[in-house]
Amino acid sequence: MAVANLLLRTIAENSMVVLLQGLQGEVTTVDLRNESTARGRVVNVDAFMNVRLEDVLYRDRRGKLTRLQDLFITGRNVRYVHIPDHMDIMKTIQSQLAKIHRVRNFASHGGGRKEYSKKK
Amino acid sequence: MVLLKNLRPPTEGVRHEQAETTAVMNGQKLGCGTLYVAETRLLWFDGSGMGFSLEYPTIGLHAISRDVSAYPQEHLYVMVNGKLTGENEADMAEKAADDEEDDSSNSSCAGDDDDDDEEAITEIRFVPSDKVALESMFSAMCECQALHPDPEDDDSDNDFEGEEYDVEEAEAEHGHADIPSFYTCDEGLSALTQEGQATLERLEGMLAESVAQQYHMAGVRTEEANGEFEDGMEVDAAAMEAGQFEDADVDH
């Protein structure tokens, strides 16, 4: 399981998905490939760009609006994810990468970090 | 619309099973049956074994709908790319690109219009009698969907099955690092030749270099290493001088 998560972190780290993962908790709009849109709070985005939203206003391609409590959009169906204006994109990417590196250093074999902790 | 017959419950990998669930496909009630959320596919069939199966790669989205003004019953909504002809669900992904947009018709489309923007979709609603089960049904589908990443995605390596990346979960894993077999410092060093020893020191130096960089990079603040993880591996203090290995390639 740890190996699978390590690989997922590697995927995320090497793609813009890492930015989307920083959207957790934000309310945003996702445009789907079939022209429908979904606006809601981001619960999670995984390495495959599957997006999970809650408290969603879903507009189908004809414009009909529906409220959905929880929504899971398959990554393949995502066309755009709108980044809220107030978000600093570079900072988000950097902090997400930092999280990944922190986790990697703790979990990597040989444990590079723990050997080189700052001496007081 | 053609439904499959003689469907049987899957024998393994069933993440959720929900009996007394009505299936409604494109507005047409198919009757009451049991929904099986299995790792390989989604299955629904009634008491006579008549029903249908869905392949996860063909599912565009799924959701919990509790808005009774939109649809009178709380249900699990599933949007499938393409038409369900019942012949072969595996073809659906291809058909989705070819078929004309046609929501009301339930016949397979002969007039192919190569318009990617107007893919046909199938809307399915699973209405369980037990509304409380909707959360579990939804979660089970999320898990299974994540097991089927898009094989056509060439942005990333998708050769394996994985889980959602969860920072909290990942950080909780600190104590369960997947460490392949390795020597402890004492027994290991004695097993090394002189050349091996030199290689070890060089590699440790590279690690020191990359860690030192991370401490100074972009002002990222990192916490002290948790003392709980000390495993007695002492490092030669000389290796701490990152300058020693300036010419080394740092690969991280």
List the helices and strands and how they pair.
The complex is a heterodimer of chains A (120) and B (252).
Chain A: H1 2-13, H2 17-21, E1 27-32, E2 37-45, E3 51-59, E4 65-73, E5 78-81, H3 89-107, H4 112-115
Helix pairs in contact in A: 1-3
Chain B: E1 14-25, E2 28-38, E3 42-46, E4 51-54, E5 59-65, E6 75-81, H1 92-98, E7 121-128, H2 134-146, H3 167-172, H4 185-191, H5 194-216
Antiparallel strand pairs in B: 1-2, 1-7, 2-3, 3-4, 5-6, 6-7
Quick summary:
Chain A is an alpha+beta fold.
Helix content of chain A: 25-40%
Helix count, DSSP H or I runs of 4 or more residues of chain A? 4
Which residues of chain B sit in consecutive blocks of at least 5 with pLDDT less than 50?
A: 86-117, 218-230
Distance between the termini of chain B: 54 Å
- What spatial form of chain B do the alpha-carbon principal axes imply? elongated
Describe this structure in words.
The complex is a heterodimer of chains A (120) and B (252). Chain A is of the alpha+beta class and 120 residues long. Helix content of chain A is 33%, strand content 31%. Chain A has helices at residues 2-13, 17-21, 89-107, 112-115, and strands spanning 27-32, 37-45, 51-59, 65-73, 78-81. In chain A, strands 4-3-2-1-5 form a five-stranded antiparallel β-sheet. In chain A, a hairpin with a 5-residue loop joins strand 2 (37-45) and strand 3. The longest helix of chain A is centred in the last third of the chain and has 19 residues, at 89-107. Chain B is an alpha+beta fold and 252 residues long. Chain B has a seven-stranded antiparallel β-sheet with strand order 4-3-2-1-7-6-5. In chain B, a hairpin with a 3-residue loop joins strand 2 (28-38) and strand 3. The longest helix of chain B is centred in the C-terminal third of the chain and has 23 residues, at 194-216. Classes of the chains: A alpha+beta (120), B alpha+beta (252). Chain A: This is LSM10, U7 small nuclear RNA associated. Chain A: One of its GO terms (molecular function) is histone pre-mRNA DCP binding. Chain A: Residues 15-87 form the Sm domain.
